[in-house]
Each structure stands twice: as structure tokens, then as C-alpha cells.
Amino acid sequence: MSTPAETALARVRELCLALPETSERPSHGAPTFFIREKRSFVTFHDDHHGDGRLAIWCAAPPGAQAMLVGSAPDTYFVPAYVGHLGWLGMRLDSGQTGRSTRSRTSTTWRLRASMKSSSNAE
């Protein structure tokens, strides 16, 4: 029997790896998904440093972080380390549907895949 974290990671993995040119490897101890082996776009966290959240951290379009965190703080949050770069945390244990997770991962992939720079915000 799978734990909620194992089930959530399997779903995130399925969604991310279905996108073109993606791969997975650990980054800073967490399962992280990359575009063309270089640019991260989603990181999976289970109780990151004891925060109690089952969540993904993902890149977000300008303004999305403030809007989503302000409108749905039980679901969205500003993640540590990358929040100042506009990244968004999305709880997977707050009743989010698979559709929401699919939408967030595909939006994030499009945003990061379209960037020209080779810099990598982790």
C-alpha cells in the first residue's frame, strides 16, 4: 500500500515526464524535473525541513505568485529559497484535483521551456 507522498510523487512524475524533453533527478535532496537536462521546472517536497506540506515548487509567470497566494493561501505559498524568484508552492494535500496539478505543471513547463537563458533557478 502506497503512502500519500508516494502516490502524489507518482502522479507528479507521470505528469512531468509526459512533457517533451523532460527528465528527473534529485536536486538538493528532492525529486526535481528538468527540461533538456538543464532547466528545473518542478520540485517535489514532502515535509521540507519539517514544514508539514506535501507540495510541489514550480516556476510561475510574473504576478501569479502574489495572486494565487493571496487568493488561496491554504493551497498556495511562497516557497523557501526560490520564492524570491517568483516560484510558487502548491500543496498537494489540500484537496487539489489532478486537473489543477496537471495545469500547474504544464504551465510551468511552458514558461521555463520558453526561456532563452541557461541560468537555472533551483
Describe the structure.
With 122 residues, the protein is an alpha+beta fold. It has a single domain, classed as Aspartate Aminotransferase, domain 1, CATH 3.90.1150. Helix content is 31%, strand content 25%. The protein contains three helices and six strands. It has helices at residues 4-17, 64-71, 98-113; strands at residues 22-27, 30-35, 39-46, 54-58, 76-77, 88-91. The protein has a six-stranded antiparallel sheet. Strand 3 (39-46) and strand 4 form a beta hairpin. Helix 1 crosses helix 3 (98-113). It is globular. Mean pLDDT is 91; it is low at 117-122.
Describe the structure using short key phrases:
single chain; 122 residues; alpha+beta; Aspartate Aminotransferase, domain 1
Strand order of the largest sheet: 1-2-3-4-6-5
Low-confidence stretches: 117-122
Written as H for each helix and E for each strand, in order along the chain, the element string is: HEEEEHEEH
| CATH architecture annotation name | Alpha-Beta Complex
Can you tell me the overall shape? globular
The fraction of residues assigned to DSSP E strands is 25-35%
How many runs of DSSP E, i.e. beta strands? Answer: 6
Total DSSP helices: 3
Query: Level of helix content?
Result: 25-40%
Mean pLDDT: 91
CATH class: Alpha Beta
